[in-house]
Amino acid sequence: MQKPTRERILDAAHELMRTLGLSRATTKEIARAAGCSEAGLYKHFASKEDLFVAVLTERLPRLTPLLHRLALDPGARSVEENLTEIARQAVLFYAESFPIAASLYAETRLKARHDTAMRDMGTGPHMPIEGLDAYLRTEQAAGRIAPTADTFAAASLLLGACAQRSFAYDPEGKIGKKPPQDIDDFAAALAATLLEGVSG
To answer: CA 152, CA 110: separation in Å to the nearest integer?
Structure first.
């Protein structure tokens, strides 16, 4: 049984954006790969940017929903356990999203148009930082991290480290003289280091 059209479009968009980059994956090519017309694609997605956001939220590791959930309710786990989970999901998210978005930085006008569309949709690459900042402020209010901790700086440090790891190393760890730590070990070490800096 064939998948619904919207699911086929998302699958095709994910694959083409991942292999060709966002700027070169046209809606015409995505529609062809999904087995529908370009007009059919636009029945499900208002724009290429709308499709891009759907790929990020429905096909990539779900970082933003995790941050939103933790900001509302950190749960019974420790701050360190939550930060470890966040770091792990962030590494996976950035590793998959970098190849998709990298082509935007080669075309200034396309990047500016894309940024405007993201702002109009109320989303963009700032969302994980703001989401992690919100979670850390929740922990701060609960007294589990220092009242003087700069939560925005802490969020920026953790996510910046995760993004840099994904940028600096290929998935198999073949770039660089020393292979990176296993993702789980990296996430745990990063969480422990960050927590030491924000603990009271």
So the answer is: 29
Measured in whole angstroms, the distance separating CA 61 from the mean position of its chain's CA atoms is 7
Give the CA distances from residue 39 to residues 7, 9, 46, 195, in Å, rounded to whole numbers and listed in that order: 16, 12, 10, 50
Rg (CA), the chain: 19
Task: Note whether 86 and 67 are within 8 A (CB).
Answer: yes
The tens place of each residue's pLDDT in the chain, 200 residues long, gives 788 999 999 999 999 988 888 888 899 999 999 999 999 999 999 888 889 888 888 888 788 889 999 999 998 899 999 999 999 999 998 888 887 777 777 777 767 777 777 787 777 788 899 999 999 999 999 999 999 999 999 999 999 999 999 888 765 555 566 666 789 999 999 999 999 999 86
Cα torsion through 38, 41, 47, 50, rounded to 10? -150
Helix (H) or strand (E) segment spanning residue 136: helix 127-141
